[in-house]
Write a structure and sequence with these properties.
The protein has helices at about 5-10, 15-20, 40-55, 60-65, 80-115, 125, and strands at about 30, 35. By secondary structure, the chain is mostly helical. It folds into two domains: about 1-75, Multidrug-efflux Transporter Regulator, Chain: A, Domain 2 (Orthogonal Bundle); about 80-135. Keywords: DNA-binding. InterPro entries: DNA-bd_dom_put_sf (IPR009061), MerR-type_HTH_dom (IPR000551), MerR_fam (IPR047057).
Length: about 140
């Protein structure tokens, strides 16, 4: 099938499909006229790629995991290398979430403090703190 049909069948636009191919995640043959030609397995492969991307995995992570993927969801057999890669990604996600939670808490504290004191307590700074509202 050509790239347009694969795009229609998977709901993934052709630009993304070409990106997957460039990343080594998806393979396409070439017709004599240079058009990409995908086999029927490409539909399943694109579904697997999308699920793994939705899990927050990078293209490099997916390239490593994809050869072991089974089924649409996909299932990943529990070999130690795969589990180590997924645990590493989970640790990175947890670290990012912790940093975001700390940033959020700090912003909430600053906003609460500013709303409690208002500009009445600091008249000298009232004019200096006139920040335009975001658009």
């Amino acid at each position: 099938m050509r790239i347009g049909e694969l795009s229609r069948r998977t709901g993934v636009n052709a630009h993304q499909l070409r990106y997957y191919e460039a990343q080594g995640l998806l393979e396409a043959g070439r017709r004599a006229n240079g058009y990409r030609e995908y086999d029927e397995d490409a539909v399943l492969r694109v579904s697997q790629i999308r699920h793994l991307l939705d899990a927050g995995l990078s293209s490099d992570d997916i390239a490593y995991l994809l050869p072991c993927a089974v089924g649409e969801a996909p299932e990943l057999p529990g070999c130690p290398e795969l589990l180590d890669a997924m645990r590493s990604r989970l640790r990175r996600l947890n670290d990012q979430m912790d940093r975001l939670a700390r940033s959020r808490a700090a912003l909430v504290n600053y906003i609460d403090a500013a709303e409690r004191t208002g500009s009445e307590g600091y008249p000298a700074f009232a004019d200096a703190c006139q920040v335009p509202a975001p658009a």
